Amino acid sequence: MGPILELRKLVKHFPGQRAVADISLSIPRGSFFSLVGPSGCGKTTTLRLIAGFEEPTSGDVLLNGEIVNRRKPYERNVSTVFQSYALFPHLSARENIEFGLKRHGAPDIGRRVNQALELVNLTGKESRRPAQLSGGERQRVALARSLVLQPDVLLLDEPLAALDPKLRKQMRLELKAMQRRVGITFLLVTHDQEEALSMSDQLAVMNEGKVEQVGSPEDVYLRPRSRFVAGFLGAVNWIGGIGVRPEAMTVARSPGGERSRQSPGVITGSTFLGDCVQVQVRLSGGEDIVVQVSRASAGFAAGDAVHIGWDPGDEMSFA
Amino acid sequence: MNLRSWFLFPARLWMAAFFAAPFAIVLAYSFLARGPLGGVEQPWALENYRRLFDPLYLEILLRSFLVAGAATAVCLVLAFPAALFIARASRHKNLYLQLVMLPFWTSFLVRTYAWIFLLRETGLINTALQAVGIIHTPLPLLYNTGAVLLGLVYGYLPFMVLPIYATLERLDPSLVEAAADLGARPVSTVFRVILPLTKPGIVAGSILVFIPCLGAYLTPDLLGGGRTVLVGNLVQNQFTSARDWPFGSAVSIGLMAVVTVCLWVFLRRESEPLA
Amino acid sequence: MKRWLAAYAVAFYAFLHLPLATLAVFSFNSSRFTVWEGFSLDWYRAIFRDPQIVEGTWNSIVIALWATAISTVIGTLCAYGLWKRGSRLLTGSLYLSLVTPEIVTGISLLALYQWAFRWLHWQLGLYTVVLAHVAFSIAYVVIVVSARLRTVSPALEEAAMDLGANEWQAFWYVTLPALLPGIVAAALLAVTVSFDDYVITSMVAGVDSETLPMVIYAMARRGASPVINAISALITVVFGVLILISERVREI
Fold first, then answer.
1. Per-residue pLDDT tens digits for B14-59
2. Could you say which DSSP state residue B191 is in?
3. From CA B232, how far away is CA B243, in angstroms rounded?
4. Which helix (H) or strand (E) holds A279?
5. pLDDT per residue over A241-298, tens digit each?
6. Helix axes of A135-147 and A93-104: crossing angle, nearest 10 degrees
7. Which single residue of B1, B137, B171, C214 could bond B5 by disulfide (Cβ 3.0 to 4.6 Å)?
């Protein structure tokens, strides 16, 4: 079976800008896939092209092997969870979830809606209107409303952006679990790299309308293929053209130690982050870097002379 | 045709048939001449527009401008303090606004008739003044230009209050505080700081009052007593008793031209950045 | 200065409301002179006994209902179409229709009808008034419904289509229910605007189609009468109630 969703040389121009400039992607069936990138990189436009709210300027969108470029949103077996949830305010949660089923004339609506409510943990609240639900509950109605239609792909547009931070972390786990349980392909769009890394089976990093790299979270984080991808997915220390992540470095008072690369430096400051400590160091070569260390191996003060170490395997260099 | 075109079609049809087409007909008539039985006939000429410049009609045009201008000025003077009051009120702002709009939403005819009731020789004002002994014979308060002016001001005052209130609402209160801080007394603050900043609202309100007053018909007809003939009365007259449709059409086109110019000027100003 | 402003406000509101209030008060005067002589409902009874007033009121109601029904439908569809994508020509002509002096609208419609009657051989009547009222009411409906549409998020219709509704179903099941309060408010406004119209109606009404404003006008021309006071008071109350309901509905 081929990929459930394929984008081939997809291009979308708006007057005055190229939002999507040649994207080719292949989304595996049943996976949790993320499109991640900074604002304006074209990820939302790509989502809208897949959903059918925009038509491509050139290139193809293929669902299950079929070209669907000209098909309207209601002719595609793809469903979207909007960033604002877009719940119908005059309908109850149940009626919102029923909406798609009714338009399709599907049988057995009641049972399917009940199943969906159970899936998102909203049984008991189905007669409430959106205005009477909390932000998290509204999101779950939006999810249920789309999932109940059993789409080929579920598109999620920054679904966690409107939630407060604690809820966000919890929802990441719930969403991941939900995807595993229903087996539907999820395509998530976000600007938050932590979100993408923690939830996805595969992710694509986008910048200025192009895909810079596709791969598993470990792949793209540990082996980025461009400076942009390296810098977007996490912090990077640049030392003479080579990049090393803060958590891959060690700080010691004396040279030697396990790491084969070394550099002397002076502590310029440190920040206590609760679960770890970030130490700012000025190297002998003049670069300012940040090293992440556990609380146990902290205890440095500004002005201390130290030695920084890292492994060559942790180096990232780009042509 | 997509859904949107279908939705716009009825409105487009109605506007074409009952707004554009009538205008086209009136425009055509304005270049024709009056027939012997009151119809319209050839030749095509600019005669009607030339007649607009006869002293008799110029006087009517001039009077209309003056009355409309005066009504606008009076509305401005009366409305500004009221708008200021509402903008500064700490509570019940919406209530005060609704109280201003309420008379407007009742019948225009009734509101004009109210002034007949008050101003005529046996009306309330004269009767009351005579009863108290201030005057012994009734004053001719009705059926003159002053009464028309009063009726127009009364009718369109809310149109001046709302835009001025809107700009006052958006005014940054710290500007007023700064003025007071620098030593300005309240009245001078109004004139030197608040007034210039409310210019957009004043312009909007003035256009909203001036244009209807320019084309007013009912108010001068009921309150002017045949002595105050404004452009609106002239048009109506030509289409009824005088039976000179071509000339009436020319007057209408002239009036519309002025209205359109005023509107255009207003819209140009609206798109200019606020100071 | 606050005290001066407050005092001015009192005088201002008195100026706005006293004329109507005195009209209403004297509608209960038992004498026809402007001197209070006792409370009476005579003038109100006179309204119902005058066949001209009764027929005029009936005509006004029929015209208002027909004109409102038609203009509300046309105006709502128009506001929706413009919300999807604007049309400068249509919007411009709607605004121009609002700004055109009533007498000009009236004579132009009369000119249209007389020109059309050359071929159709019809006459002026109630229907010519209804068509005219629809013409000037559409703009009001579009304004009120457009204001309501601005509170509707376009994402809602996208969500509906995403879930399987076509364009018409998205309008019918999602946007229209959200618009309902605005449509009702627009209809109430159209009713009052139509009922109150004198200038345009007088130009295009047929001989047998006198409306209430035309009756009032004729009476006012002949000289003031307390019957007019009574009618005025009734109209004011009815209009006031309609507008208040309209405002309440808009806030739903």
1. 999 999 999 999 999 999 988 876 677 878 888 889 888 999 999 9
2. I
3. 15
4. strand A277-283
5. 889 999 998 888 888 777 788 888 899 988 888 888 899 999 888 888 898 888 777 6
6. 20
7. B1
- Assess contact for A300 and A282: CB atoms under 8 A: no
Nearest Cα residue to B223 out of B154, B118, B144: B144
CA dist list (Å): B231 to A177, A274, B33, B215, B262: 77, 81, 20, 6, 16
Q: Are C149 and C180 in contact (CB under 8 A)?
A: no
Distance between terminal CA atoms of chain C? Answer: 38
Tell me how crowded residue A135 is: count the other CB atoms within 10 A of its CB: 12
Mutate to test the interface with C, among A99, A104, A153, A187 (most CBs of C within 10 A): A99
Name all chains with 3 or more CB-CB pairs below 8 Å to chain A.
Answer: C
Q: Which residue shows structure tokens 């292949």?
A: A26
Name which of C217, C85, A306 is nearest B221 in CA terms: C217
Is the CB of residue A318 less than 8 Å from the CB of residue A226? yes
Q: Collapsing DSSP states into helix, strand and coil, what is residue B38?
A: coil
Measured from the Cβ of residue A15, the count of other Cβ atoms closer than 10 Å reads 4
Q: What are the backbone dihedrals phi and psi of residue A161, each rounded to the nearest 5 degrees, phi first?
A: -60, -35
Distance separating alpha carbons of residues C88 and A78, to the nearest angstrom: 36
- Does any CB of chain C come closer than 8 Å to the CB of residue A238? no
Q: Judging by beta carbons within 10 Å of its beta carbon (0-12, 13-18, 19+), is residue B192 exposed, middle or buried?
A: exposed
| Bridge partners, residue A66, by sequence | A63
Contacts of B106 in chain C (CB under 8 A): 20, 235-236, 239-240
What does the pLDDT profile of chain C (252 residues) look like in tens digits? 778 889 999 999 999 999 999 988 888 888 877 778 888 888 888 899 999 999 999 999 999 999 999 999 999 999 999 999 889 999 999 999 999 999 999 999 999 999 999 899 898 999 999 999 999 999 999 999 999 999 999 999 999 999 999 999 999 999 999 999 999 999 999 999 999 999 999 999 988 899 999 999 999 888 768 899 999 999 989 988 888 888 888 877
Residue A38 to chain C, least CA–CA distance (Å):
22
- Contacting chains of B (3 CB pairs or more, <8 Å) are C
User: Of A286, A280, A255, A253, whose CA–CA distance to A268 is shortest?
Assistant: A280
Bridge partners (DSSP) of residue A291 are A279
Q: Are C71 and C130 in contact (CB under 8 A)?
A: no
Distance CA C45, CA C26 (A): 15
DSSP state of C29: B
How far is CA B65 from its chain centroid? 11
Q: Which residues of C touch B25 (CB under 8 A)?
A: 108, 111-112, 115
Nearest to B111 by CA among C193, C23, C192: C23
Paired tokens of A264: 């002397």
Q: Which amino acid is at B8?
A: L
Please identify among residues 56-115 of chain A the ones whose CB lies closer than 8 Å to any CB of chain C: 72-74, 78-80, 82, 84, 86-90, 99-100, 103-104
Cβ proximity of A136 and A122 under 8 Å:
no
Torsion sign over Cα C154, C156, C157, C159? positive
What are the backbone dihedrals phi and psi of residue B121, each rounded to the nearest 5 degrees, phi first?
-60, -35
pTM score: 0.88
- DSSP-derived 3-state class of residue C153: coil
- Cβ burial A85-110 (10 Å sphere, 16+ → b, else e): bbbbeebbbbbbbbbbbebeeeeebe
Structure tokens at A16: 């005055």
Q: Are residues A125 and A93 in contact, defined by beta-carbon separation less than 8 angstroms?
A: yes
The closest of C182, C81, C204 to C134, measured between CA atoms, is C204
* Residues A163/A190, Cβ–Cβ less than 8 Å: no
